[in-house]
Design brief:
- The chain has about 800 residues and is an alpha/beta fold.
- It is about 60% helix and about 5% strand.
- The protein is built from 36 helices and 13 strands.
- Strand 9 and strand 10 form a beta hairpin.
- It starts with a helix and ends in a 7-residue tail after the last helix.
């Protein structure tokens, strides 16, 4: 007996495997009911989950719906995440059988957040945020494509939706529920659609229906169980079901709710009522067998595969999806997927690997869109999870394959996170335009794939803002507000942009944007902070302080808020001690990006210098320089503080050492020259610095303009002449001529113009320089001279008219 058991088990498993193949003609169902939503700002429903369970119970009952248990996917509340729903729909496509009904039941909220014709309606998943539905909720377009795919396989799709409930949603102001219901009514293919109510109605639910159900669901299930069989022929056609549900629901809701059934011939028999108990016994036994498929298949797998399966489940539960490499869920998944003995479980393995990957990404996006302080802080410090999200999405896409309908959305999110990470990393490094442009490429790709995701446009705006494209930034932020009118962040970003452009001219409009942001999200600390900064630069210091303190009360650990409040206090000589204490607290936390931490040290050093505490000022300013060597302010402030303390000699030593350690940076040369404007040690060191020609030219040019802006013209001329390293230094020659003309040195300027035109006369730059000499404001006075006209006539072929 013992020896025969494995053989019997093997035969039983093969039989089960055959039962689960789509070759067997059987109906299938995905049943979704969400009463409890993750976002607390979305109104929970009372009985949507119970309605879904009742519908699933009916379908799986061997005497009623007669849908085998392994052909029903039930998702309620926290199990009904967007990833889980999309995975269930993908599964339904694989098991859909020709000439059999494929049920899709969805009880949740339906909404559209913006009144734009291009926007699809959305059915909210458990983890959908209060706004930004695109890619984060199930769109009606996605649903229609799924139903079309089922029809193409010869199945009969039966869509049941109960999605027009009362509650506070993003689209209330634009009739979002009504628009979604209208879209759901629009039948696309050969399918049956059953909706709980008309677009202008609400779906009623309460304890009077089955002890706690929705009126529509209660009578739909009752009718399918047999109550709709008017002629008692043990068959329920669409006419009978429609008439029964409409009459009962309308009567029980005082004619305030009228379900709608569309599609299919009215005499189409949807359901056959059972004749006796024998069929019930057979179906129940089949369900019991199929429910044990997983255990049966695993029982015959090799021991190592069984252990890997346990490890796989543990890794998924622990969130170890891709890391650590050898003990990650993905590693175990790949082993199990390649095991021949587990062939029957491959679909289940795919589902259990992809859903957690996509759920993790969704959770981070939802928290960000809600402006959760911890999530925003995690973003700014580039938490490790953000770096791994593109890998999560790529792994999910690799498992699902290129033809899966989820792929465009997954690829859009992958490009979004790649661009986001690159932008955040570039921010931490002080900003490099080439890196921002690479990030912009990723975000453009994401937006092309999914043009109605508001957070794509918001991130595009942040990149345009950093690249100086103010018009493009405004357009991107404004587009985000159109797509997600109740999302606060893009309104705040519009206020920031207008403040940067011109805080006085744009004060009123910027203030309105900040006010809109805080109205939509009263606990959005960053909006209060930026509104406070707008008031500060506009001279409204008292009001600014109130808003900054309000921001700090909302988010006491935010170092940016504390920095801005400390900066404000540091502008008042009577409150320097308080400002210093705040800066010290921020520095102690040491959680900021280097450039932001450098600002804290700089401001602390500035205040110490004002108080005459030169030793403390020097310490703070040196730390600011170490953290952000590119910021010129700390170098200048340190020189001024040391000179004011009669420590010019120490300053000379410091900047001389700086030239030695960083000969490719301008700060040492510049401040060594400014310590003694009569000395030429800086110039000697610049001439003898061992630097590539291109670096030396760039450095001399930067120094020249720095001297010019600080009013030291002789040093500026010396540096700009040094930038002319050879006969091909066209730009350096032009810069010198512009400087000389702008400072009124006409004779020298004319010689420099002659030199520039002569050297470039046989090159591609001649036309460019001719145009600039004819139009640039720096040459306005020089253009009036006879010598200039003769030069330009000789080299440019025409004499520009004097201004």
């Amino acid at each position: 007996m013992t020896a025969l058991a494995p053989i019997r088990l093997l035969c039983w498993v093969f039989a089960l495997a055959c039962l689960t193949l789509p070759l067997r003609s059987q109906p299938s169902a995905v049943v979704i009911g969400i009463a409890d939503f993750q976002d607390p700002h979305i109104t929970d429903l009372a009985y949507a989950d119970d309605d879904a369970r009742a519908f699933a119970d009916y379908l799986q009952d061997p005497t009623e719906g007669q849908v085998p248990a392994d052909r029903v996917r039930l998702l309620t509340d926290s199990s009904a995440t967007l990833a889980a729903i999309q995975s269930a729909l993908a599964w339904q496509l694989t098991v859909a059988a020709a000439d059999e009904p494929t049920y899709l039941y969805v009880a949740t909220h339906g909404d559209v957040e913006a009144s734009q014709a291009s926007q699809s309606g959305y059915l909210l998943a458990h983890d959908t945020p209060r706004n930004n539905y695109d890619l984060l909720a199930l769109s009606v377009d996605y649903l229609n494509a799924h139903l079309a795919a089922l029809s193409a396989r010869g199945a009969l799709p039966v869509l049941v939706t109960d999605a027009c409930h009362a509650g506070t949603l993003a689209g209330n102001a634009v009739a979002g529920k009504e628009l979604t219901t209208t879209l759901l009514m629009q039948r696309q293919q050969d399918e049956v659609r059953i909706l709980s109510c008309q677009p202008y109605e609400l779906s009623r639910e309460g304890p009077q229906w089955g002890g706690g159900r929705g009126a529509f669901s209660y009578y739909l299930v009752s009718g399918m169980q047999g109550a709709a069989d008017e002629d008692r022929d043990r068959q329920i056609d669409l006419y009978e079901l429609e008439r029964f549900v409409q009459e009962r629901v309308s009567a029980d809701t005082d004619r305030e709710q009228h379900p709608e059934l569309s599609g299919g011939r009215k005499d189409l028999v949807l359901l056959h009522l059972p004749a006796g108990d024998q069929q019930q016994y057979i179906e129940a036994r089949t369900v019991a067998l199929e429910q044990r498929l997983e255990e049966a298949v695993l029982a015959l797998a090799p021991p190592e595969a069984q252990r890997d399966y346990v490890r796989f489940r543990r890794a998924v539960d622990a969130g170890a999806l891709l890391e650590p490499g050898e003990r990650s869920a993905l590693t175990y998944y790949r082993r199990l997927r390649s095991e021949p003995a587990l062939l029957a479980l491959r679909g289940l393995l795919d589902d259990r690997m992809t859903v957690p990957l996509l759920d993790s990404v969704q959770q981070a996006l939802v928290a960000y869109l809600d402006s959760d302080p911890q999530e925003l802080a995690a973003r700014e410090r580039i938490d490790d999870k953000y770096r791994i999200f593109p890998r999560y999405l790529a792994a999910a896409a690799g498992i699902l394959g290129p033809d899966d309908p989820r792929i465009p959305g997954i690829r859009a999110k992958e490009a979004y996170f790649q661009g986001l990470i690159l932008r955040l990393e570039t921010d931490r490094l002080g900003g490099v335009d080439t890196s921002y442009r690479r990030a912009l490429t990723y975000l453009t790709e994401a937006t092309d794939l999914e043009p109605e995701a508001a957070y794509h446009h918001n991130e595009l705006g942040l990149l345009h803002l950093r690249l100086g494209g103010m018009r493009d930034a405004y357009g991107s932020f404004y587009r985000a507000t159109q797509l997600a009118p109740t999302w606060a962040l893009p309104y705040s970003n519009l206020g920031i942009l207008l403040k940067q452009l011109n805080p006085k001219t744009n004060f009123q409009q910027a203030a309105q944007y900040f006010d809109r942001a805080t109205t939509l999200k009263p606990d959005l600390a960053s909006a209060y902070m930026n509104f406070g900064n707008l008031l500060l630069v506009s001279g409204r210091r008292d009001s600014a302080e109130l808003l900054l303190r309000q921001a700090l009360a909302l988010h006491p650990d935010d170092t940016y808020i504390r920095y801005n409040l400390a900066y404000l206090l540091g502008q008042d000589s009577s409150r320097l001690d308080t400002a210093l204490a705040l800066f010290a607290a921020v520095i102690q936390d040491d959680r900021d990006a280097p450039t932001q931490l450098a600002k804290n040290h700089y401001e602390s050093g500035r205040i110490h210098a004002l108080r005459g505490d030169i030793e403390a000022a020097e310490d703070q300013l040196r730390q600011a320089i170490a953290l952000d060597p590119a910021d010129p302010r700390a170098y200048a402030r340190l020189r001024e503080a040391l000179v004011a303390a009669d420590e010019a000699q120490r300053a000379t030593i410091y900047y001389t050492e700086l030239i030695t350690t960083r000969p490719d940076q301008p700060h040492g040369y510049l401040h060594l020259a400014l310590l003694d404007t009569t000395a030429t040690e800086w110039l000697r060191r610049l001439r003898t610095a061992s630097l590539p020609d291109s670096v030396a030219t760039d450095l001399a040019t930067r120094l020249g303009f720095s001297f010019y802006w600080s009013g030291h013209y002789s040093q500026a001329e010396a540096a700009l002449r040094l930038a002319i390293s050879d006969k091909d230094s066209y730009t350096a020659r032009f810069n010198l001529s512009a400087f000389l003309a702008a400072t009124g040195q006409q004779k020298k300027a004319l010689a420099a113009v002659r030199d520039t035109l002569r050297v470039s006369s046989d090159g591609p730059m001649l036309t460019t320089y001719c145009e600039r000499y004819a139009s640039d404001v720096d040459f306005a006075q020089l253009r009036a001279t006879e010598g200039f006209r003769k030069l330009t006539e000789k080299y440019c072929g025409q004499v520009p008219a004097p201004d």
